[in-house]
Amino acid sequence: MKRKLFYLLPFLLLAGCGQASYKNTSLSPEERAELLVKELTLEEKARLMMDASQSVERLGIKPYNWWNEALHGVARAGLATVFPQPIGMAASFDPEMVYEVFNAVSDEVRAKNTYYTSRDSRERYQGLTMWTPTVNIYRDPRWGRGIETYGEDPYLTSRMGVMVVKGLQGPADGKYDKLHACAKHFAVHSGPEWNRHSFNAENINPRDLYETYLPPFEALVKEGEVKEVMCAYNRFEGEPCCGSDRLLMQILRGEWGFDGIVVADCGAIADFYNDRGHHTHPNAESASAAAVVSGTDLDCGSSYKALVESVKKGLIAEETVDVSVKRLLKARFELGEMDEPEKVSWTKIPFSVVASAAHDSLALEIARKSMTLLMNKDNFLPLKRGGLTVAVMGPNANDSVMQWGNYNGMPPHTVTILDGVRNILGAEDKLIYEQGCPWVERTLIQSAFSQCKSDEGLGFTARYWNNLTHEGDPVTTAQVTTPFRFCTSGATVFAPGVNLTDFSATYNSVFTPKESGEIVLEVYCYGSGKLRVDGEEVKSFSNKHGARKTTHTMKVQAGKSYNIELDFEYLRSDAQLNFDLGFKKDVDIRKSVERVKDADVVIFASGISPSLEGEEMGVNLPGFKKGDRTDIELPAVQRELIDALHRAGKKIILVNCSGSPIGLEPETKKCEALLQAWYPGQQGGTAVAEVLFGTYNPAGRLPVTFYRNIYQLPDFEDYNMTGRTYRYMQDIPLFPFGYGLSYTTFNYGKVSLNKGEITDGQTVKLTVSVTNTGERGGEEVVQVYLKKQGDTKGPVKTLRAFKRISIPSGQTVNVEFELKDKELEWWDEQSNTVRVCPGNYDIMVGGSSRDGDLQQISIIVR
């Protein structure tokens, strides 16, 4: 309370002599920002230009943390609805549904922000500026962060990205913006992760730049009116992206007229001068000056502290600094963050929307729409219940954390694939669960928690303090008799009498193994702490960006006692602590096959995990490097188990969970059906089961090409598009972009155009009839591609329109598209621009990008 009064004091003192002009809410955000900039010292300006913006107490400016995440739900801030990973949402080919998802996400963000600010908390992941969506082109399936994108096609990415922005930012006609979204990472940025802080994307063909890499960003700026753009870590043509005059000043602010905030990716300014980075600048003063001059307003980091020295040394004028500060203040006024909460209508959204039942239903609907059926031999699916024995196997069968993806929140519940199948089976059916193998390694973990005993009894004795330092007498002591599953989401304390925030804990037990072998102690937490064995610290952890896993492996002897002690301290948002320990057991494929010998069908949940593919990770297992992949094949241990099941005569349904295309060519010969389930969020297991048993008819389509093997790929570090994605690939992939099956069939009538010849500025109306010729209703994704005749250097085809439509059995729907300038533009070699160019064009219409699925009609552009 004292702190709040302190911030209000300047305004109370000013009340007798007139309101501070920049507090006048009748002025525009820009006018208010202009007035406030004049009141600031240079030192204060520099403090406002970092992601953890400090307060200016004499002016009543509160601290503000610009860094918040909402990739597919409110992230890293505890309780939230977890929707499918963006690559899965892209498979829905349903932009309107994506809008509904992010409208719900923005409701949750606003409700959580209101809750935090009511408690005078303004920490990271609590603000109103969301650093999403990721609209980089997924040019190579080996890139780990491709899971965060909307696929390999510029048009699809643009349509989805614009809807993300509109859903987050809310209607444009209100007094205050709902939230601010951020298009990232600008611009030529899609791996490798291992050298992203020093990598130089160079010799980029201008055509590839303007036809492939830039269109989604341009769409988000011009159509979505996105408020922020994040510049990338790497260099572009020799210059760090956050200091690239070409990208930021000429293209973004010049050609596109962007007047919003450019924020540096976290630590990107330090990459200008530090040892692991680009070495383009000698120190923070020169790097910071160069970045601001190039248009980068906000530093995620602390390099911009040096701007005071930059100005003193003449490296940058204070007036140039003012331009960036004004943009930042204007954004805060637009959000209402600088005004009293009761004046902002968005603060009326109740906290009850967070992880609500309505949002859970929405998570299920978008998960259903993301399900992509790739193979169904002899209509093996859907399965029929009634006396059916089903074995559920594989590393992703019972893994809720995998389903959450990355940059995720904490859902109140998760339906795993095993849960989904169990829930849908009838009373006469039988379920067998046998994991069989992990993702990559050849050992499984068998829990030994029951072999732990403290002085107080079985399990661990827990002591809790309502401080962060374990000081004083514990507020409570408890006995934990099962593997830890603690989380403060939903205002659930770790134990009675313990704070939701600002608490610490120590857990003690003695582990006396019944057998000798290798034991794994596994901590999955959002917080910090230490793990000790016999008084010696073996692991420490401090997870500040969401929950992460930490493990310690050691040899143990049967009958020998080991003292285990785990310290935990709360960091921020919702605390989480999972702990278990278990013996490493070698995978035994023969035994696993024997255990499912009575199964009529095996549902094998294959694939990988966000703990293996993702952002700059420490994973260096076979096939993975720093979050990227060095191979695209299904990991060998899974392949061997599937092969053994096939040889045993089992009918296998492969449910593949991944954020990237997996090389599944051998599996297409050994499995009856193949469903790509992505990382499907909290209701993913329900959606998978509904598809497998036919209560939902799938209609997802691939937003990325599924290649046969790595030999179909160009060099990972080559950013030119030759041979890449369906747009430039000459070879035949395993499954093409836009491909997906249904439990019904569709027949296309003849495509017609309202005119066969147009001039620049005219609109073409395309019509095609689509008939559902099957026995059940279903959805079809009608896709329209364009190709310029005679252009041997351009894409072989490129998506320019699509619609997901529902058609009842036996009925016909006339599907219409209006193709305007944006859909008909092409690369002009004469001017090095993308525009409507004269020439003869082929328009292709059908259910996927595969030539055999398309019919063609020509048009002349004069």
TrEMBL record:
<dbReference type="GO" id="GO:0009044">
    <property type="term" value="F:xylan 1,4-beta-xylosidase activity"/>
</dbReference>
<keyword id="KW-0732">Signal</keyword>
<dbReference type="InterPro" id="IPR036881">
    <property type="entry name" value="Glyco_hydro_3_C_sf"/>
</dbReference>
<dbReference type="GO" id="GO:0046556">
    <property type="term" value="F:alpha-L-arabinofuranosidase activity"/>
</dbReference>
<dbReference type="GO" id="GO:0045493">
    <property type="term" value="P:xylan catabolic process"/>
</dbReference>
<dbReference type="InterPro" id="IPR054850">
    <property type="entry name" value="Xylosidase_Xyl3A"/>
</dbReference>
<dbReference type="GO" id="GO:0031222">
    <property type="term" value="P:arabinan catabolic process"/>
</dbReference>
<dbReference type="Pfam" id="PF14310">
    <property type="entry name" value="Fn3-like"/>
</dbReference>
<dbReference type="InterPro" id="IPR001764">
    <property type="entry name" value="Glyco_hydro_3_N"/>
</dbReference>
<dbReference type="InterPro" id="IPR026891">
    <property type="entry name" value="Fn3-like"/>
</dbReference>
<feature type="signal peptide">
    <location>
        <begin position="1"/>
        <end position="20"/>
    </location>
</feature>
<dbReference type="InterPro" id="IPR002772">
    <property type="entry name" value="Glyco_hydro_3_C"/>
</dbReference>
<feature type="domain" description="PA14">
    <location>
        <begin position="455"/>
        <end position="597"/>
    </location>
</feature>
<dbReference type="GO" id="GO:0008422">
    <property type="term" value="F:beta-glucosidase activity"/>
</dbReference>
<dbReference type="InterPro" id="IPR044993">
    <property type="entry name" value="BXL"/>
</dbReference>
<protein>
    <recommendedName>
        <fullName>PA14 domain-containing protein</fullName>
    </recommendedName>
</protein>
<dbReference type="InterPro" id="IPR011658">
    <property type="entry name" value="PA14_dom"/>
</dbReference>
<dbReference type="InterPro" id="IPR013783">
    <property type="entry name" value="Ig-like_fold"/>
</dbReference>
<dbReference type="Pfam" id="PF07691">
    <property type="entry name" value="PA14"/>
</dbReference>
<dbReference type="InterPro" id="IPR036962">
    <property type="entry name" value="Glyco_hydro_3_N_sf"/>
</dbReference>
<keyword id="KW-0378">Hydrolase</keyword>
<dbReference type="Pfam" id="PF00933">
    <property type="entry name" value="Glyco_hydro_3"/>
</dbReference>
<dbReference type="Pfam" id="PF01915">
    <property type="entry name" value="Glyco_hydro_3_C"/>
</dbReference>
<comment type="similarity">
    <text>Belongs to the glycosyl hydrolase 3 family.</text>
</comment>
<dbReference type="InterPro" id="IPR017853">
    <property type="entry name" value="GH"/>
</dbReference>
<dbReference type="InterPro" id="IPR037524">
    <property type="entry name" value="PA14/GLEYA"/>
</dbReference>
